[in-house]
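Encode chain A's predicted structure.
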Amino acid sequence: MALRYFEKKNYTSKNSCGASSGGAPGTVGTSGSALNVRSGPGTSYSVVDTLANGSAVTIRCQKSGETITGTYGTSNLWNNVGAAGTNKYIPDAYTQTGSDSRVAPDC
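Encoded structure for chain A:
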């Protein structure tokens, strides 16, 4: 479909340029404080680690869970940033991925 000169269309890229094999790239974005890494997709899960603001992460897979409002909006997606077989989740709302939707497969 062709757009007329006065129309505009926004596109969201879902490619993973520069991603290492096994996941999509992301960057932790907070107000400067460290982000808690949880053992599951919600704040009721135990804290197993922390990540500094600006940390680069590899998103292995994503899971729906508790809805969180953060730096990059409101989302119920949680990103698994641990090695295969580990449960290390951070809220997608605090992860810059270049997309407002899923960037990795379901966990």
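The CA atoms of residues 20 and 85 lie 18 Å apart.
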